[in-house]
């Protein structure tokens, strides 16, 4: 399922100039923001209330001109109503999204074609199939009454070797700290730009903090959002592997594609094991039929993770990370999450978060 997409359509210089003038004029007549950003792009909020931010980008050094759109597909359909900030898009929404996109662009198309000088430019920007994709956010909502406990456990999950923990300035401690209500990690390229991010967060808290509307606030308070944001290279490879005559946007809405991405990164970070207190986890390992040497190694890994209060923190202290990762994987395969429930919580068991995933 999809939360947000960042798409683009390359156009030539003259088409860009014509579109620029059309959007600027419409923005002014509709009282919408149209402004230049620090990176030289122009942002247009003409369609913002419907979940679309239009970005005009021109890179003279590479002779590139294009229209980019950051789109929330559900907000395109419902605006600010009907839990638009909470729901996710899937294949059942495809036709409605395409139809709404065409309708929303109709005034822009009319303004563009009204100008005589544009008669040689065929307007195609109202068709979703005209766009390629720079970023796609695959996501799923997970409902649980134990959201507070799960979020604490999730923040102790694994950070794969090629990922980094996101931190931000904390005014109280005057140090950089991870966000309180999320587990947010990212992967960088050689230039330091994020190429893929994984974010698992308290959805109700996010909606409240950003003062976004939600019809069912009680449901939102019990929702964890697991989200994988894929940038251009990853998206390009996904679409290439899923090569067919189907439109790209249709491919991205396919349940199998979304499931594969979400399951893969869920496994690499949070994992499939159930949560139990350390003494219980130790007993489970001791009860398994395996060599004593293997049992001792797995229990030793459990002890280290318990002591350091998290897989990623424990991993920072070991010299043989490959061996550590192998033990973590083996614990998950045995149905035991290496992150154990603190004894003072007085909770004996919490099922694997994956088992609680539900699809709208």
Protein architecture, described:
The chain has 360 residues and is α+β, with helices and mostly antiparallel strands. It is built from 13 helices and 13 strands. Strands 1, 2, 3, 4, 5, 6, 7, 10, 11, 12 and 13 form an eleven-stranded antiparallel β-sheet that branches. A two-stranded antiparallel sheet has the order 8-9. α10 runs antiparallel to α11 (292-308). The mean pLDDT is 92.
Attribute tags:
eleven-stranded antiparallel sheet; alpha+beta; 360 residues
The percentage helix is 25-40%
Q: Specify the biggest β-sheet.
A: 11 strands, antiparallel
Number of helices: 13
Helix-strand string: EHEEEEHHEHEEEEEHHEHHHHHHHE
What value does the Rg take, in angstroms? 24 Å
Which segments are poorly predicted (pLDDT under 50) over 5 or more consecutive residues?
none
Class computed from helices, strands and strand pairing: alpha+beta
Number of strands: 13
First-residue to last-residue Cα separation: 9 Å
Strand residue percentage? 15-25%
Secondary structure elements and pairings:
Layout: E1 2-10, H1 13-30, E2 34-36, E3 42-44, E4 52-59, E5 64-71, H2 73-78, H3 94-114, E6 132-143, H4 147-154, E7 164-165, E8 168-170, E9 175-177, E10 182-188, E11 194-202, H5 203-209, H6 217-221, E12 223-231, H7 232-241, H8 248-252, H9 255-269, H10 278-287, H11 292-308, H12 311-315, H13 321-333, E13 357-358
Antiparallel strand pairs: 1-5, 1-6, 2-3, 3-4, 4-5, 6-12, 6-13, 7-10, 8-9, 10-11, 11-12
Helix pairs in contact: 10-11
């Amino acid at each position: 399922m999809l939360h947000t997409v960042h798409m683009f359509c390359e156009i030539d210089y003259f088409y860009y100039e014509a579109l620029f003038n059309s959007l600027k004029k419409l923005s002014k007549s509709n009282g919408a923001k149209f402004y230049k950003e620090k990176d030289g792009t122009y942002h247009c909020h003409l369609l913002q209330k419907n979940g679309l931010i239009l970005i005009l980008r021109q890179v003279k050094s590479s002779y590139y001109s294009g229209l980019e759109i950051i789109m929330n597909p559900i907000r395109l359909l419902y605006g600010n109503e009907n839990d638009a900030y909470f729901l996710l898009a899937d294949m059942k929404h495809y036709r409605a999204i395409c139809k709404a996109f065409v309708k929303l662009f109709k005034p822009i198309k009319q303004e563009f074609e009204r100008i005589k000088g544009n008669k040689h430019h065929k307007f195609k920007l109202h068709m979703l199939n005209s766009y390629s994709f720079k970023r796609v956010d695959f996501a799923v909502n997970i409902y649980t009454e134990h959201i507070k406990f799960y979020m604490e456990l999730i923040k102790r999950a694994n950070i794969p070797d090629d990922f980094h923990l996101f931190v931000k300035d904390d005014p109280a401690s005057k140090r950089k700290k991870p966000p309180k209500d999320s587990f947010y990690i990212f992967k960088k390229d050689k230039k330091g730009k994020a190429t893929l991010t994984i974010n698992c967060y308290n959805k109700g808290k996010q909606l409240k903090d950003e003062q976004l509307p939600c019809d069912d606030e009680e449901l939102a308070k019990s929702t964890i959002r697991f989200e994988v944001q894929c940038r251009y290279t990853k998206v390009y490879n996904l679409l290439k592997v899923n090569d067919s005559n189907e439109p790209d946007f249709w491919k991205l809405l396919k349940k199998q594609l979304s499931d594969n991405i979400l399951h893969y990164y869920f496994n690499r970070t949070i994992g499939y094991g159930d949560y139990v207190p350390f003494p219980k986890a130790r007993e489970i390992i001791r009860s398994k039929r395996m060599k004593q040497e293997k049992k001792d190694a797995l229990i030793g890994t459990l002890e280290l993770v318990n002591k350091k209060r998290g897989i990623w923190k424990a991993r920072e202290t070991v010299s043989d990370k490959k061996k550590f990762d192998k033990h973590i994987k083996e614990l998950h395969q045995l149905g035991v999450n290496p992150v154990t429930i603190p004894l003072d919580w007085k909770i004996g068991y919490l099922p694997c978060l994956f088992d609680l995933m539900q699809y709208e």
